[in-house]
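User: Need the bound-state model for zinc ion:
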Amino acid sequence: FGSLAEKVQRDPSFSTLSSDDISYFKGILGEKNVVQDEERLAIANTDWMHKYKGSSKLLLQPQTTEEVSQILKYCNSRSLAVVPQGGNTGLVGGSVPVFDEVVINMSLMNNVISFDKVSGILVCEAGCILENLITFLDNQGFIMPLDLGAKGSCQIGGNISTNAGGLRLVRYGSLHGTVLGLEVVLANGDILDMLGTLRKDNTGYDLKHLFIGSEGSLGIVTKVSILTPPKLFSVNVAFLACQDYFSCQKLLVEAKGKLGEILSAFEFLDSKALDLVLNHLDGVRNPLPPTIHNFYVLIETTGSDETYDRQKLEAFLLHAMEGGLISDGVLAQDMNQASAFWYLREGVPEALMKAGAVYKYDLSLPVEKMYDLVDEMRTRLGDSANVVGYGHLGDGNLHLNISTPQYDDRTLAQIEPFVYEWTSAHRGSISAEHGLGLMKANKIFYSKPTATVKLMTSIKKMLDPKGILNPYKVLPHSIDSHS
Ligand code: FAD
Ligand code: MLT
Ligand code: ZN
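Assistant: Bound-state model below.
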């Protein structure tokens, strides 16, 4: 697959690892948290999609912020490049080394520090796995304001560093709103304590926002303070079929207006995406009779009054059915059925992986134009590929995925730069929620003006003058041609 990887040269200003370095790290972390085992390294060097592969020879597992600080201080003085790594579920080649960068694995920093039941504010370490936080909060009567298919492995620090969106953003907003504070270690080892637990704090620039979505390029997130909503017990999930994309769109507008405060998710997948799930994942079935529908929508409502919420949803669905927006649909009768419906949507990335090679695009576009791109891509690629559309319709976020038996440059050349040019022409974003990583570092100009990228580059230089933090990712390898 090599030819598909972004072609970058190893930065010669970085040192290579020596035995003295290893001894130093063993001195601060202890023998067992300095990992040189080949099997462990092979996993850390490979991304979730098996598309990007580095050749790191060292993985470090700090247990405290002070250890992270000592590691970075040392790496900075030695010019050793590093990659912060959470659950390694990132989809843009950002979480794995490109060459021999040292992997800083955050999984041992996995403690909940405090939870305030009055305010709903959770403070925890960055290596906490999202699903563990969800379970912890569930016992307290709260939920995380974000949820995503990778919850079993991704870490809150990784979520924050990618500014992950996910399945609940339509209701609870982005992490820029729910994260109240962060503790971050800078490239030189300085610890920035911004771990506030206040809803309101207008004392100067709100620097935590720089680190939300900066993909480990400006600092390592070590602790997090996040506002969590109370768990409401009336949850309903409907799995619906629509004949055309226009109906999905109209359904969204209606849902926002008529379900209002109880709407907690509005996801869609096209019939090709559903077919992939049905054909490649075990234990799944289509809850709707086997008629061909072109689109499927999953609507979730979350509220505090079972009778009222159910009535409201049923009235909405009846109205939508009578108006022809929905051609069929089913309302989950219990939690198991609700989870099964969710799996039909959340299982799409895994099903795509099982189907073969996948070219993955994560775009923000005006909702009314969004699906035109899928249609155009199908016309371009003909029978040579399976073009699939799904995503967070409620947030204007399309996941355009192109599935082929294997990767090849000819297919890639038909997809790119077309997909980026199309998105740019419609004033969309080439990364709605996955970040830029290695995959799209050089494509940033499709979504950001040169002056903005220059300022980002200056900020990077100021915070990480030697560029040791996650090199080759996020920012373009050169901005000269754009100035
Ligand atoms: P990693 O993959 O390990 O790292 C991601 C980036 O963050 C890298 O650049 C890494 O260097 C950096 N990083 C990690 N931890 C830290 C830290 N503590 N400090 C500084 N930098 C750090 N994304 C969405 O937005 N919405 C979705 O719905 C969604 N669904 C997904 C479903 C599946 C099945 C999969 C495989 C992925 C999905 N993703 C989704 C993408 C991915 O899960 C998210 O980007 C997630 O937030 C990454 O978390 P992680 O802990 O795995 O981070
Ligand atoms: C999703 O919404 O399923 C994720 O972002 C993963 C993907 O885009 O495949
Ligand atoms: Zn997504």
